[in-house]
Amino acid sequence: MPVVSEAKALAFHALHPEMWVMFCTWTLELIAAGKIHGGARAVWERMRWESDVNEDYKQYGELFKCNNNYTRWYGRWFNAAYASQGYGEFFFTREHGGHEGE
Hints:
Elements: H1 6-15, H2 17-32, H3 40-53, H4 71-81
Helix pairs in contact: 1-2, 2-3
């Protein structure tokens, strides 16, 4: 998967704030179900699934065509945003030594 800079991910986020709402909603649902850790990709895939089959989310379907490269940033942002609530390590992260586009 190509590396996407956080700046590009933030630009995408600015255009599509509803993605963050969905991501956090379903991550918090995982936490409420008793999960200690989760996968950002699993949440992202649920977002894709819901946008394909759930009438309430079909309007967002086009956003999921080619945006897997942003998943890692959403996981990191969630960890940062919810750290004070004890979820700062819900998503495991790893450093990527590559440069954007590699």
